[in-house]
Structure formats: structure tokens, C-alpha cells
Write a structure and sequence with these properties.
The protein is an alpha/beta fold and 216 residues long. The chain contains nine helices and eight strands. Helix 1 packs across helix 9, helix 4 crosses helix 5 and helix 6 crosses helix 7. The protein starts with 7 loop residues before the first strand and ends with a helix. It binds BIS(adenosine)-5'-pentaphosphate. BIS(adenosine)-5'-pentaphosphate binds next to helix 1, helix 2, helix 3, helix 6 and strand 6.
Length: 216
């Protein structure tokens, strides 16, 4: 029997939990877009937009970008045609104010998957992550190495280490997650939308855990 999955979801979890990694497969299987606020901000920086320039300092320091900028950016993205049938929100909302803004703007959430990974594993994952400059694909020097060092498997672009994946900034991002984003676990728990999923172990096992949590 074909399984049926919810199509308006949030992937919640600390930096390095695997939100981006798992979204790639969900996009393929569910046919809905991944809306990653981190990716949208990096695209704005690359294009040199006003938003990109404003966001730069916060991102490089591992601080959150102000709520009003993020909310406006997400509203614009959700208005596009491909998001009308569903979406995977990756990295949004990240504060209670952002979650409340979703309610005020009638942005529907059917399920919230909370990926749980211990801190030591997060640090190891973030420190070894490499990203393709051209297509944004994500790799890891030990856990998901590229076939040729420094070269993207997908498009042969050059891979690099994100500026915010340096040890001091990783610490700050994890602290900010605990202080500003972790309260959303209770927020969505109280509303009956939360599903905790283990983000530890093989990427394919984590994926299966997510699919189970999305079954309707
Ligand atoms: P963003 O880009 O969203 O960063 P993040 O939340 O810190 O998340 P990451 O992309 O670092 O982690 P991930 O969970 O996607 O992990 P991944 O799959 O890559 O945000 C960047 C910045 O933008 C923020 O700091 C902030 O300034 C700003 N921003 C963004 N959204 C905002 C918002 N809503 N409000 C305000 N500011 C905002 O995996 C990590 C690594 O681990 C990879 O190398 C991967 O290969 C590896 N890996 C994944 N799964 C496994 C596994 N099971 N086993 C082993 N390795 C694994």
C-alpha cells in the first residue's frame, strides 16, 4: 500500500542536525520545495542584495538575523507557485516571534519534525562539512566525502568550508539555538504538532525515521 505523507512541515533541529541533508531526499520523494532560510540568505549575499548585505554580519558571527527581515523573506518565497502544494521549512521558524508570525499570516504547519543529535556529534559534523560554491550541495570530509577532494560530485564545482563552520562560531550558533530556538520544541509540543526523531546514526536510518513521523 502506498504511504501518504504530510506536505506542510517544519524541520527543526540545531545547526548540523542534518536538516539540509535530509531535505534533499524529501524534496525528491514528496515533490515539494525545501525552503531554507539559510540558503535564501546566502543566495542574497552572493547576489549582493540589500538584504544580503544586512544579513552578512549576523551570519558570520553566528547570530540570528532580525525577525522582520526573515519573516518578509519567507512570506515572499511562500507566495511562489511551487509552494502552494506544500513545503519543507528548513531553519525557519527559529524564534517564538517567527512562529507567532506564521500563525498571524495563516502559514499552515501540519507537522514539526525535531531532529535530536548530541552536541559532540554536531560539532564534528559542522567542522567537517564542505559545500559546493556552484550548486550548494553539502558533503562531509569523513561522513560524505566527495569522490575527488575539493570537487563537487554533482556539478564539479569547487567545495569550500562555510565561514560560520569555524570552532568559535559553531559554539555561538549552538548557544543561540539553545537560547532562542529550543523553546519552539515546547511551543509545537503544546500544539500537538511535534514529532521527535533521532538524527543520530546512518543518514538513511534518519530519513526513515522522518518518513515515519510524516505518515498520515
Ligand atoms: P542555516 O544555513 O540554516 O544553518 P543551521 O541551522 O546552522 O543549519 P546547518 O545548515 O548548519 O545544518 P543542517 O541541520 O542543515 O545540517 P546539514 O544537513 O548541512 O543558517 C545559517 C545562518 O543564517 C544562521 O546562523 C543565521 O545567522 C541565519 N539564519 C538562517 N535562518 C534564520 C532564521 N530563521 N532566523 C534568523 N536567522 C537565520 O549537515 C551538517 C553536516 O553533517 C554535513 O556535512 C552532512 O554531510 C553531515 N551529516 C548530516 N547527517 C549526518 C549523519 N546522519 N551522519 C553523519 N554526518 C551527517
Amino acid at each position: 500500500m502506498a504511504m501518504s505523507y504530510t506536505r506542510k512541515l517544519i524541520l527543526l533541529g540545531p545547526p548540523g542536525a542534518g536538516k539540509g541533508t535530509q531535505s534533499e531526499r524529501l524534496v525528491e520523494q514528496l515533490g515539494i520545495p525545501q525552503i531554507s532560510t539559510g540558503d535564501l540568505l546566502r543566495a542574497n549575499r552572493k547576489a549582493g542584495t540589500k538584504l544580503g548585505k544586512k544579513a552578512q554580519g549576523y551570519m558570520d558571527a553566528g547570530e540570528l538575523v532580525p525577525d522582520d527581515l526573515i519573516i518578509a523573506m519567507v512570506k515572499e518565497r511562500l507566495a511562489q507557485t511551487d509552494a502552494q502544494r506544500g513545503y519543507i521549512l528548513d531553519g525557519f521558524p527559529r524564534t517564538t516571534a517567527q512562529a507567532e508570525a506564521m500563525v498571524e499570516n495563516d502559514i499552515v504547519v501540519e507537522r514539526v519534525v525535531n531532529l535530536e543529535v548530541p552536541k559532540e556529534a554536531l560539532v564534528e559534523r559542522l567542522s567537517g562539512r564542505r559545500i559546493c560554491r556552484e550548486c550548494g550541495a553539502s558533503f562531509h570530509v569523513a561522513f560524505k566525502p566527495t569522490r575527488k577532494e575539493g570537487v563537487c560530485d554533482r556539478c564539479e564545482g569547487e567545495t569550500y568550508q562555510r565561514a560560520d563552520d569555524s570552532p568559535a562560531v559553531i559554539e555561538n550558533r549552538l548557544d543561540n539555538f539553545a537560547a532562542q530556538t529550543a523553546p519552539l520544541i515546547a511551543f509545537y509540543g503544546e500544539r500537538g504538532l511535534l514529532q521527535n526523531v533521532s538524527g543520530e546514526g546512518e543518514m538513511s536510518d534518519v530519513y526513515q525515521g522522518i518518513l515515519d513521523a510524516l505518515t498520515v
